Write the structure tokens for this entry.
Amino acid sequence: MILTVTLNAAVDKTYTVENFAIDRVHRPTEWRIVPGGKGINVARVYRELGGQAMATGFAGGHNGDYILEGLRAEGIPHEFVRSAGESRVCIAVLDPVSKTQTELNEVGPEITAQELDLLKLKYENLVRDMEFVVLAGSAPPGVPDCTYRELIEIASHYGVRAVLDTSGSSLIEGLKAVPFMVKPNVHELSAVAGRQLDTLEEIADVARRIHESGVKVVATTLGRDGALLTTDEGALHAKPPEIKFVSAVGSGDAFVAAFVYTMETGGSNSDALKLATAAGAANATSFGAGFCSRADINNLANEVEVVRL
């Protein structure tokens, strides 16, 4: 079983709006409203693949009630800390005509020191029995940048492999604890490097330096260009198949879920990269974050090309 941590859980609302434009009234032709946040999305895809995942994090107010009820309805085991502040709402507007994706993501509730202490206590009780822990997404107000670093250190104390998928200062701080795996996208990796990374060689060089610091697996997602994996075995580039694109929301989370699932079930790094790239692509063909099917993921995995750099 794995544990996923979503510090900034959300009610995710995805709308399809043809010819979306500002300063107009729109009526969506399609919508999906579900519990969201990166760790929750990971748990959703992980379970779809056949694994077991427990979700934790913060949930507050009426939105928190909706998140927890939604997790129960989906059959995702969870133990969240209730916050006094209201959990956020994240809105994605997809326009199939102009092929645009517009997102409005609230910042999240103010988390108190007492609430954070409760989360750390709950986390330590849960993580000690896990194979992996996935720490994913942004931190809400009141949560220090060092929090992921501290959670990784707790996991390491119990011999649990930590996977970090965040950005900015939380990513930089988290790397100091040397997680087992880190999954930035190219923009997040560029921020760590302090410069724009434009070529595979530049990306591979920065990823290699992170790997040399002790991070066993560095998986950099490249959007339509697939993903670059850096491990003790060198660098591998996965190229996804052509797909009918719907939305990128949650594709990085699907990637993490499939990669960890393959690792937990004894697959190789190459197998993990192939299935993860397929999961990201399958998610991009589906409506809503993390609602790709196991069948679609496995079918696309047969079309993923992996080459050594």
